[in-house]
Design the sequence.
């Protein structure tokens, strides 16, 4: 097969040494392999991850979320360039369940992050299309480990504001940052309380020009709203900041807050990551079990009948579930 340097091929397993040396093409190939759903690729990815794992864990893991149009891409570009100026390297990964529908809506974002994408200190990877939110998040977590093994000292995981993916991202990062728009009013822009509770940092974007004053008000509103939420960590009180990705105001302060959070968590970060890894194991098991259950021919046959019986009210859903589980567990 002809080698195509610009289109990473999952069939070609990258060398661990190349990834560890920070070879970006090897890293890109590793992530392609990780994202592949083919069983032989999956096996190769597992082997690769096992070798990379001892070299992972060195990055500050940051999750970034916010509604479409809030300014995520613009912020990440400004923030990333700021970090590079300060001597860091940064990998940006995206969890975007909507891309599963549109076939890669986030592609346009790469152009928004043009300057950042050009820098050798950065690595930007859009989310894989064609998978459900859970599947994307699973693979993103592994991609994050690969980026760490490649030596990136900051990993940013971006997601778009749709509940489920936010929880998944919060579950894989050290700090979850929620971006919000200036203005909005009483309902706090319809941002669900559950998502607010995930945020260690809330950042009001676009605090420049005519939006500067509304941004200040929004910041005060969120400070008030956050003070009403029950504390989720004894180590950190969520903070609200405002910034402008256009003129750079407040960008340095966002990083300072992240550094302060890292310092506050020093003694408990290993525990937090350990708990995340354990939760991930159970998620994996759940997904694997469901996948093999769905792939089981006898279960499928019974399921079709039982679904009908459940619809017709002839059997209760829980009794039908028990029957299916019985068929699954009794298989050879
Ligand atoms: N005035 C101002 N506009 C911004 C700022 N950040 C983003 N925008 C604008 O907001 C729009 C959406 O930004 P984008 O980064 O694509 O948002 P995303 O959908 O969350 O990734 C674009 O038109 C940006 O130019 C900012 O700091 N100040
Ligand atoms: Mg964007």
Sequence:
């Amino acid at each position: 097969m002809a080698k195509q340097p610009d289109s990473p091929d999952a069939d070609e397993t990258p060398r661990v040494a190349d990834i560890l040396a920070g070879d970006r093409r090897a890293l890109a190939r590793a992530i392609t392999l990780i994202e592949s759903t083919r069983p032989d690729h999956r096996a190769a990815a597992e082997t690769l991850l096992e070798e990379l794992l001892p070299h992972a864990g060195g990055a500050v893991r940051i999750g970034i979320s916010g509604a479409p149009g809030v300014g995520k891409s613009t912020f990440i570009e400004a923030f990333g360039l700021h970090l590079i100026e300060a001597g860091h390297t940064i990998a940006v990964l995206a969890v975007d369940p909507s891309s599963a529908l549109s076939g890669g809506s986030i592609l346009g974002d790469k152009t928004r992050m043009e300057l950042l994408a050009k820098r050798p200190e950065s690595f930007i990877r859009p989310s894989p299309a064609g998978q459900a939110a859970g599947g994307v998040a699973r693979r993103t977590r592994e991609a994050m480990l690969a980026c760490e093994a490649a030596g990136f000292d900051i990993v940013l995981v971006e997601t778009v504001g749709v509940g489920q993916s936010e929880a998944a991202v919060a579950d894989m990062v050290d700090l979850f940052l929620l971006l919000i728009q200036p203005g909005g009013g009483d309902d706090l822009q319809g941002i669900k309380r559950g998502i607010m509770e995930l945020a260690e940092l809330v950042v009001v974007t676009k605090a420049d020009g005519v939006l500067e004053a509304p941004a200040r008000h929004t910041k005060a509103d969120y400070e008030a709203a956050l003070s009403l939420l029950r504390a989720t960590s004894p180590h950190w009180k969520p903070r609200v900041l405002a910034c402008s990705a256009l003129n750079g105001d407040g960008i340095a302060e966002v990083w300072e807050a992240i550094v302060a959070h890292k310092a506050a968590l020093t003694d408990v970060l290993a525990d937090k990551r350990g708990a995340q890894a354990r939760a991930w194991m159970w998620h994996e098991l759940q997904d694997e079990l469901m996948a093999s259950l769905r792939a089981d021919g006898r279960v499928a046959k019974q399921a079709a009948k039982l679904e009908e019986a459940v619809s017709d009210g002839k059997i209760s859903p829980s009794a039908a579930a028990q029957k299916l589980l019985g068929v699954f567990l009794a298989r050879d």
